[in-house]
Amino acid sequence: MVSIRWGIIAPGRIAHKFASDFSLIHNHSITSVASTNIERARAFADKYKLSSFYGDYREMLTKEKLDVVYIASPHSFHFEQAKMCLDLGISVLCEKPVTIHSGQLKQLLTLAAENGLFFMEALWTVFLPTYTQIFEKINNGDIGSIIGVKADFGFHMPFDPESRLFNPSLGGGSLLDIGIYPLLLATLCLGYPNEIKALATLTELQVDDEMMAILKYNKRGLAQIQSTIRANTRTEAFIFGDNGSFWVPGRWIDSQIFYVLKSDGQEELVHSPWEGFGYQFQISAVEKCLVQGLSECPLVPHSLSIQLMNQMDEIRKQTGIVYPEDAFNYE
To answer: CB 3.0 to 4.6 Å from 52: which of 32, 160, 243, 267, for a disulfide?
Structure first.
């Protein structure tokens, strides 16, 4: 097996989970990490036994011979950091949402294509055994044709204008941070909607602390999605078919169980256990793509990221969610 040389930008909470799951994949490791805080990078490198650490992103990218970089910074930094990697000839796995708006994403995809590089949004839930099994059952027609999705994601967070969750300069708000999860599920199950109706409550900083949307599809399907940082919700998901449904209890995004609810009232509990945080499946998928010389992952193609970003752009347009990046024209 070819050894893939990984680098990490921004060693925060998500990066720790990501790095921890490397221990579950034999003979795979991270080479280096970079942070604007050199001591934070040093501590991360010590914890995961990395060979090098840096207090400057560009220094790591130019000094290390990296195959791919995992970007785990707040949303508003993704565009510039991903662009830096691609400009330097390094493939990218970027945390979701991959950018603030679709114009930025189009630029990155163009740059990746011009440089012949792999690029993927880190939609890690797609690779979890739970969803591998669910979509296998959908493809087998176990619950008939999919006609609806209902999913929420919510937790209570006290308002703090400096927090990543509320600060517009950091891409704050529930939609971009957690609303992308139910939107992803709806898109995977029903495709791209032909109509969206969205509402949101906005903070004084003009980012959403709660969002709800109804999406209508050509196949007579409907999706109901909700994200909130105002309250602890059940955070569960339903996928409705015309001959049954799937229920994934909370937290549905990384649940290791789901129920098959048949039209005749029978229920089946399905277990899909795994170790760690579940990032190892995404890591393995990226490495497989790199070894095969692919520019995108078949399970998370560029078209899926474009569809998600276009839908979030439309929801933001309807609800008045505003970010500093919106002042620039990336088209």
So the answer is: 32
The distance between the two most distant Cα atoms of the chain, rounded to a whole number of Å, is: 62
- CA pair distance 206, 166, nearest whole angstrom: 9
CA distances from 239 to 36, 104, 208, 214, 274 (A): 42, 31, 26, 15, 22
Amino acid identity, position 323: Y
Identify the three-state secondary structure at position 99. coil
Q: Which two tokens stand for residue 323?
A: 């970010």
Q: Given its phi and psi angles, is residue 109 left (phi above 0), alpha (psi -120 to 50 degrees) or beta?
A: alpha
Identity of the residue numbered 73: S
DSSP three-state, residue 330: coil
Strand 68-71 relative to strand 6-9: parallel, antiparallel, unpaired?
Answer: parallel
Q: Would you say 286 and 280 are in contact if contact means Cβ atoms under 8 Å apart?
A: no
**Which secondary-structure segment (H or E) carries 193?**
none
Q: Supply 263's token pair.
A: 């039209």
Question: What are the pLDDT tens digits along the chain (331 aa)?
Answer: 578 999 999 999 999 999 999 999 877 779 999 999 999 999 999 999 999 999 999 999 999 999 999 999 999 999 999 999 999 999 999 999 999 999 999 999 999 999 999 999 999 999 999 999 999 999 999 999 999 999 999 999 999 999 999 999 999 999 999 999 999 999 999 999 999 999 999 999 999 999 999 999 987 899 999 999 999 999 999 999 999 999 999 999 999 999 999 988 899 999 999 999 999 999 999 999 999 999 999 999 999 999 999 999 999 999 999 999 996 443 4
Question: What's the burial of 80, exposed, middle or buried (CB within 10 Å: 0-12/13-18/19+)?
Answer: exposed
Domains in the chain with CATH codes: 6-125+279-300 (3.40.50.720), 129-271 (3.30.360.10)
> 95: part of which helix (H) or strand (E)?
strand 91-95
